């Protein structure tokens, strides 16, 4: 399990916390600091799109969960 406790939490909703790392990248953690994954914002001609990537702890890699048109929808996939 990866737990990071040095970055300030920007918001806690639905049992997960978001930590904005820069303008287009957020780390998603549980309230206790366990890293669940990342949400990355990209730009498309239709507007911003958010890519959710779940962290697989044992394999030490990320798996794209999906692309979403709003940040809250991207966050929703980390609740479970």
Give an account of the 3D structure.
The chain has 1 helix and 6 strands, in the order E-E-E-E-E-E-H. With 80 residues, it is mainly beta. The protein has one domain (11-76).
How do you describe this structure in short?
By secondary structure, this protein is mainly β. Helix content is 8%, strand content 55%.
Oligomer: single chain
Q: Decide which structural class fits the backbone.
A: mainly beta
Task: Outline the low-pLDDT stretches.
Answer: none
- Count of separate DSSP helical elements: 1
Give the amount of beta strand, in percent. over 45%
What gap, in angstroms, lies between the N and C termini?
A: 16 Å
The spatial strand order of the largest sheet comes to 1-2-3-4-5-6
- The tally of strands reads 6
What's the structural blueprint in terms of helices and strands?
Layout: E1 11-13, E2 16-22, E3 25-30, E4 35-44, E5 47-56, E6 61-68, H1 71-76
State the main characteristics.
mainly beta; six-stranded antiparallel β-sheet; 80 residues; 1 helix; single chain
């Amino acid at each position: 399990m990866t737990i990071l406790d040095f970055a300030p939490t920007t918001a806690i909703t639905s049992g997960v916390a978001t930590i904005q790392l820069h303008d287009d990248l957020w780390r998603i953690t549980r309230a206790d600091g366990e890293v669940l994954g990342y949400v990355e914002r990209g730009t498309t001609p239709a507007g911003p799109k958010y890519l959710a990537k779940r962290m697989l702890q044992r394999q030490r890699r990320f798996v794209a969960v999906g692309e979403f048109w709003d940040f809250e929808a991207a966050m929703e996939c980390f609740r479970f």
